[in-house]
UniProtKB/TrEMBL annotation:
Principal location listed in the UniProt entry: membrane
Segments traversing the membrane: 10-29, 49-74, 86-109, 129-151, 163-190, 210-235, 247-265, 280-302, 330-349, 369-389, 410-428, 455-479, 506-526
Family per similarity comment: Belongs to the heme-copper respiratory oxidase family.
Name this protein carries in UniProt: B(O/a)3-type cytochrome-c oxidase subunit 1
Originating species: Brevibacillus thermoruber
GO biological process terms on file: aerobic respiration
Length: 542
């Protein structure tokens, strides 16, 4: 891609990795505190560090990386450059997001916003934390407008023909993101900010949680879809293969768009304020949103098998041997895919109403999201970074850096395996999530959890080591690796495929989505507004 686009993408990616580094440190510390290995100094506390870790990792690292990656890929697949208007949107977004990030971070550092990354009521932060979050969201919309702007221009220049797969997927991701962030924007602007400034004395907590999870579930697909873009479009090229089916890939994304928003109640299955009928509808839709992931698994297997067989792999699994196992650009996302198999199964367990009663609010859930976003998605982002950063800085991914990347992937995978296995196991024993070190007054059951909590801490140590290694390798690739050209891998279908044009008719899909949202949320939200629970007293934590 051209230099202006590269500069913009890199600006996003650097903030992403700065946040990642701080978040990794906070993560290791909180694991050690929980495992009883260290005590924090009196000027900080577990919940402050937990908030820093969650906000920096789950909200800042992901959003910045996603925008940086997608902007570069959209440019790469539409002629190599973003036009001036798209660049302007992109930079405006970066500035707003960065102002918002700094505001939110300052309030976390001053301990005025220890409200965890889910930040719904009744925990209350400084209003400046919420204003920072709002700026982050609005800034990310501008990043999305940069993609939409490039997309529209490309369509105009190409007589309305079907957009490249990477672009289509990026547009779908941002349509999802913009629609999904509307409810949290309403929560922040009309509930949290007025309450936090003291303009209103009570808050409708049910509504606050509902609006948050209305956003919170599609948020996880906003993380996942860019990883899927890498799986569908970049990984096939890395292994010397093709996109298995253009239509299937687009259909999977449309399904993700339609079914990942009207499902938020699966995070609220244990809440008494929502009637079981509505929860059931959300559970059914949740089980439907599993299907595009199964389609993705099928598609990836098909790509690997056809490519492996073409390279001479024979027998039932001989094609697997033909994969480029020593290429970190393949290895890191592949390990992520492997983790995603149990992670997806865990998600289905979570979504099943009765089983949710067993795992809800236990560290099982923490284990679930560390192997979804923390491994499947994160390892894919690392795998992408290993080629994206040198491609953008005009350097090469050297053999040594590649080898170190493999080591880093193994450290991350082993750390995550140990930590998340312990979390899943402890969750089934009933160990609560989001608690600092405690033995519950030396209760024998809680004492029995300690060994596994130490395993969690040990896994966290390995993860921190992997994070430091990653930052060192990326720093090397950006500033010290030999100058040269690194490929931006984009695969195509093997033969021309006829993709149904309906897949790109946005008014149809946005219309269907609006219908599903109204069906899934209209009545329950009206009910919550009507019955208006008494509201919490305005407790100040700042
Ligand atoms: Fe989840 C809680 C249900 C997917 C993230 N989830 C969370 C939270 C986070 C999160 C962050 O229903 C905690 C929120 C909080 O703080 O409270 N989740 C699901 C379901 C899925 C799912 C049904 N989650 C994700 C993804 C996430 C993520 C993806 C991040 C990126 N989740 C829940 C529920 C809760 C929840 C409940 C609430 C729990 C509670 O009570 O609080 C599904 O979308 C999963 C579908 C995935 C699959 C896997 C397909 C496998 C693939 C890999 C193929 C491998 C290949 C390689 C090709 C069906 C695509 C193999 C090659 C070989 C050779 C073997």
């Amino acid at each position: 891609v051209d230099r202006s686009t590269a500069r913009l993408s890199l600006a996003y990616i650097w903030v992403a990795y700065a946040a990642f580094g701080l978040a990794a440190l906070a993560g290791m510390l909180q694991g050690m505190v929980r495992g009883g290995l260290i005590e924090l100094p009196s000027w900080t506390n577990y919940y402050q560090i937990l908030t820093a870790h969650g906000v920096l990792m789950a909200l800042i690292f992901t959003t910045y990386f996603i925008i940086g990656f997608l902007l570069s890929g959209v440019a790469r697949t539409t002629g190599g450059a973003l036009h001036a208007a798209a660049l302007r949107w992109g930079w405006a977004g970066w500035v707003l997001m960065t102002v918002g990030t700094v505001m939110a971070l300052v309030t976390i550092i001053t301990n005025d916003a220890s409200v965890l990354y889910t930040f719904y009521a009744p925990l209350k932060a400084s209003p400046y934390f919420y204003i920072g979050a709002a700026l982050l969201v609005v800034g990310s919309w501008l990043g999305g407008f940069a993609i939409f702007s490039r997309y529209r221009r490309w369509k105009r220049e190409n007589g309305g023909s079907m957009s490249p797969l990477f672009v289509f997927m990026s547009v779908t991701t941002f349509v999802l993101w913009i629609i999904a962030t509307l409810p949290v924007a309403v929560e922040v602007l009309f509930q949290l900010i007025p309450w936090s400034f003291g303009w209103t004395s009570t808050i409708n907590i049910m509504l606050s949680r509902t609006l948050f999870w209305f956003f919170g579930h599609p948020l996880v697909y906003f993380w996942l879809m860019p990883a899927y873009i890498a799986w569908y479009v970049c990984v096939p090229r890395v292994i010397g293969g093709h996109v298995f089916s253009d239509s299937l890939a687009r259909l999977a994304f449309i399904c993700l768009l339609l079914f990942s928003i009207p499902v938020g109640f699966h995070h609220q299955l244990m809440e008494p304020g929502i009637s079981p009928g509505w929860k059931m509808i959300h559970v059914i839709l949740t089980l439907i949103v599993v299907i595009p992931s199964l389609m993705t698994a099928f598609s990836m297997f098909a790509t690997f098998e056809t490519t492996g067989r073409k390279k001479g792999g024979t027998g039932l699994f001989g094609w697997l041997k033909k994969m480029p196992w020593s290429d970190v650009r393949f290895f890191a996302p592949f390990v992520g895919m492997l983790f995603f198999i149990p992670a997806g199964a865990g998600g289905i367990i979570n979504a099943s109403n009765q089983m949710n009663a067993v795992v809800h609010n236990t560290v099982w859930v923490t284990g679930h999201f560390h192997i979804t976003v923390g491994t499947a998605v994160a390892l894919t982002f690392f795998g992408v970074s290993y080629w994206l950063i040198p491609a953008l800085t005009g350097r090469t991914l050297t053999r040594t850096a590649n080898r170190m990347g493999m080591v880093q992937t193994v450290f991350w995978a082993v750390g995550m395996f140990l930590m998340s296995f312990a979390m899943h196991y402890l969750g089934l024993q009933g160990t609560p999530r989001r608690t600092a070190y405690t033995t519950y007054m030396d209760h024998p059951v809680a004492l029995g959890w300690m060994d596994f909590q130490r395993v969690m801490a040990f896994g966290g140590g390995l993860l921190f080591t992997a994070a430091v290694l990653l930052l060192l390798i990326l720093g090397y690739l950006a500033f010290f690796a030999p100058k040269g050209k690194t490929e931006y891998p984009i695969a195509e279908t093997e033969t021309e495929q006829q993709t149904p044009r309906i897949l790109e008719r946005w008014p149809v899909w946005v219309g269907v989505l609006a219908f599903l949202i109204v069906m899934a949320y209209g009545y329950p939200i009206m009910e919550q507004l009507h019955h208006h629970p008494p509201g919490s007293p305005p407790i100040r934590t700042w």
